[in-house]
Amino acid sequence: MPWLWSALMPHPPVIVPEVGRGREREAQTTVDGIERLAEMISDRMPECLLVLSPHQPYAPLSLALNGAPRLRGSLAPFGASVSLKINTSAKLRPLAEYLRSTGMAVHDGNPLSAAIDHGTLVPLYFIKKALHERGLPDVILASPIGLGPEKSLKLGEALASFDDGSNWGLLASGDLSHRLTPDAPAGYSPAGKKFDAAVIAALSSGDSQRLLALQPQEREEAGECGLCSVMAMLGICCALRRAIEVISYEAPFGVGYCCALG
Q1: CA dist., res. 7 & res. 199, Å (int)
Q2: Element (H or E) spanning 83, and its range?
Q3: CA angle 114, 117, 119 (to 5 degrees)
Q4: Long-range contacts of the stretch 238-243 (C-beta < 8 A, 24+)
Q5: Residue 165, phi-psi category: left (phi > 0), alpha (psi -120 to 50), beta (remainder)
Q6: C-beta separation of 161 from 108 below 8 A
Q7: Which residue in 5, 45, 213, 238 has the fewest CB atoms around it within 10 Å?
Q8: Where are the alpha helices (DSSP H) in the chain?
Q9: Tens of pLDDT along 194-205?
Q10: Residue 49: in which H helix or E strand, if any?
Q11: What gap in Å lies between CA 258 and CA 260, rounded to an integer?
């Protein structure tokens, strides 16, 4: 089976010690969870890692695959000299062709950006740390935002049947609600707690119906970030009949962070 694992990781730069400078301890449950998750997958690194990030450039109504051959990024905008360089896998084109054959709309034209967004960089920082001296695999950076939740679920289901003879991993990057407390970055809404509870329940049970039933205004009111990433992970794990383990969840800074592995 080509898909070794699927992992949901949050991406707040503050949990990187060079950024947080001590504030990362305010999200210790998340730091512990993401480090544990990175260790759990460190001995099962795939040949290619498909990264779904809501902060990659997106294409309307499509899955946007970033075709830049080499990518680099840093956390300098967040005050840290943490940088990363990665290569885009040559498997991007075959993956795009396969997804199109399933009816999925895919944008894989000109490189969208050569920059690694923080939604990608933060999880890869912890994976790279867990690998010690071993290098990261080649990646394919993608944004599922243009698909929306329902088609993101179908993306995951389609990925489950993709087999090119290589080993793959799915990194679903995404934070949950940004409106969980009065001091949250997007302000407070009671919809935030309901949204996060629905996500945790869906991951724990493998049942995506409650998330699919959410209306656009409910998602907007919750200030969600990573629902499309979550839906793709649910799609692939359910299609492969894999249970998802929720490793950690907390909501420091008024934002929901969840680590999960399937």
Answers
A1: 14
A2: strand 83-87
A3: 150
A4: 238/156, 238/157, 238/206, 238/208, 239/156, 239/157, 239/160, 239/161, 240/1, 240/3, 240/160, 242/6, 243/206
A5: left
A6: no
A7: 213
A8: 17-20, 28-42, 92-101, 118-131, 148-160, 190-205, 209-212, 216-222, 227-239
A9: 999 999 999 999
A10: strand 48-52
A11: 6
The two structure tokens encoding residue 136: 């990261």
Token look-up 């969870």 returns 33
The CA-atom distances, in angstroms, between 169 and each of 42, 46, 49, 233 are 11, 6, 5, 11
Spacing of C-alpha 144 from chain mean position? 10
Contact (CB, 8 A) for 231 and 209: no
Place of tokens 């075709």: 67
Of 114, 79, 126, nearest in space to 257 by CA: 126
pLDDT at site 140: 97
Instruction: Name beta bridge partners: 5.
Output: 169
Q: Determine how many CB atoms are found less than 10 A away from the CB of residue 217.
A: 9
Rounded CA-CA distance 2/49 in Å is 11
Q: Could you tell me how many helices (H) and strands (E) the chain has, helices first?
A: 9, 10
Amino acid at 100: R
Cα–Cα dist 30/256, whole Å: 10
Among 4, 7, 2, which Cα is nearest to 203's? 7
Q: How many CA atoms lie within 13 A of 122 on its CB side?
A: 32
- Helix or strand holding residue 106 (H, E): strand 106-107
Q: Extract the tokens encoding 161.
A: 């049947």
Look over the chain and give the mean of its residue pLDDT values, rounded to a whole number: 96
